[in-house]
Design a protein that fits this description.
The complex is a heterodimer. Mean pLDDT of chain A is 93; it is low at 1-8. Helices cover 32% and strands 15% of the residues of chain A. Chain A is of the alpha+beta class. In chain A, α3 crosses α6. Chain B starts with a strand and ends in a 12-residue tail after the last helix. By secondary structure, chain B is an alpha+beta fold. Chain B contains 13 helices and 11 strands. The model of chain B has no long low-confidence stretch (mean pLDDT 98). The chains are: A alpha+beta, B alpha+beta. Chains A and B meet through α1, β4, α4 and α5 of A and β2, α2 and α6 of B. Bound molecules: flavin-adenine dinucleotide, iron/sulfur cluster and FE2/S2 (inorganic) cluster (FES) (2 copies). The site of one FE2/S2 (inorganic) cluster has 11 residues of chain A, from loops.
Amino acid sequence: MQDRAVQSDAEPQPLPEKVSVTLTVKGTERRFSVLPWVSLLDALRDHLDLTGTKKGCDHGQCGACTVLVDGRRINSCLTLAVMRDGAHVTTIEGLAANGALDPLQQAFIDHDAFQCGYCTPGQICSGVGLIAEGRAKTPDEIREFMSGNICRCGAYPNIVAAIQQAMGTRP
Amino acid sequence: MIPFQYTKANNVADAVRLIAATSGAKFIAGGTNLLDLMKDNVERPTTLIDISRLPLGSVEETASGGLRIGALVPNSDLAWHPLIEKRYPLVASAILAGASQQLRNMASTGGNLVQRTRCAYFYDTATACNKRQPGSGCSAVNGINRGHAILGASTSCIATHPSDMCVALAALDATVHVTGSNGARAIPFADFHRLPGDTPHIDTNLGPDEIITAVEVPAKGFATNYSYLKIRDRMSYAFALVSVAAALELKDGTIQEARLALGGVAHKPWRDPAAEAALRGQAAEEASFARAADLLLRDARPQTHNGFKVDLARRAIIRTLTQAAHGTPQSQSNKTIQ
Ligand SMILES: Cc1cc2nc3c(=O)[nH]c(=O)nc-3n(C[C@H](O)[C@H](O)[C@H](O)COP(=O)(O)OP(=O)(O)OC[C@H]3O[C@@H](n4cnc5c(N)ncnc54)[C@H](O)[C@@H]3O)c2cc1C
Ligand code: SF4
Ligand code: FES
Ligand code: FES
């Protein structure tokens, strides 16, 4: 496998065609065309104008780009838009329903679970994923299963409290 | 990232045909390692063959009492699969010690095996690296090598394999099922990853036209006496400096069978039959564990900056075997080491 990557420098390839991709975002089907190397993150921000999802590291190391794809939290920087054709994507813009914030969004406000706010859309999408998984319950477990979301401002204790509130386990 | 063509494989035969016919092509499954490396121009495939929708996503019981895990089963689903939790908790624990839940939701079983080293020079195209560019030299040998190998390294490459899951699979004697142009074959886990020797650009014995279809674990899961202990620079979301998978079969305090594998110390999960044989028939107590640790580490050759790994590994082995013997496996949420 590995020698292939080295060989590939040799022959320049014709530029590929754009590929048509359909995503369901905020309950609406959105169709657009992208080159194959466009990440889901860049597609959301640059093609669908959904800039709530943030780019931190672009390498899977910070969690700022966390979105829910078919209900599961993933890092949108490490997947290609073309690989997600047909998927339902929930970003921070799609969490509120009928004008009411998601309980976790409200809990972040109640507990002041952010400072600059840059990591927050990813934290909230990740927390929604965590609650849906139904596995992490104790503060230790919440911390461990939220470890894929780095907060440069160090809002961690309040983030854990907010998740506990939304799960209904806050003492 | 350099431009590349994108195509989807319709079935396993199609995937094999495409990879054999397309020079410089690579499979993409979860994308968490390959896209990361492509963004840094370390991997430069001409074509990505998307295998993520192939029907390789199930976990099935085998006739011999083991489990056959499809190559596309996500790491998160595997860790929480009822049969894995019940019969192979060592695998579940090792998976949960790695990466983050978002990454585990994307990462596939097959991709986890083929993920490449985290050596910083491998990632930095401005430096010499025999793994990235054969014959260019190894920047780590005389560079910063705190995270590098202490066992099985060569003068060409001192990189480590970063996977946690693979350490558990190695301990359990798993088998890797692959299919290529010449048909299907089964590779024992110990033969899947290679030592670097003078060809460190080849990580595994997977053929250039082969796809991993499944990983099989045999009936024996050591579900009662096991532990996976991972030591790293921060408590979570970091690669191992040293990790240990230990599994014991005990009878009245005497060891009937032992499995011991190390992560973070070599180009592949590190096992040694001599260390495991030395545990057989012994009392499950610290003196036996210390002898096994010394045997497993007897060929350790630290680099300039990682002498600490030898002591760390020795203590971690003793601790992990103790946890396994007591039936108190390391929790991957509460990081207190008991
Ligand atoms: C920030 C970060 C932290 C991480 N931390 C950890 C950690 O602590 N512990 C740990 O173990 N891992 C860790 N990982 C690594 C992660 O587990 C791997 O990236 C993942 O398992 C790779 O699987 P994938 O499906 O995404 O592979 P891909 O990126 O899709 O592919 C990786 C390689 O495997 C090949 N491949 C994929 N599937 C097949 C197949 N079926 N047959 C043949 N070849 C195939 C691809 O061609 C490619 O060369 C981390 C990753 C990141 C980004
Ligand atoms: S240790 Fe291996 S991967 Fe790292 S620089 Fe040396 S050759 Fe490259
Ligand atoms: S931007 Fe995706 S994890 Fe940092
Ligand atoms: S609130 Fe600033 S990074 Fe988290």
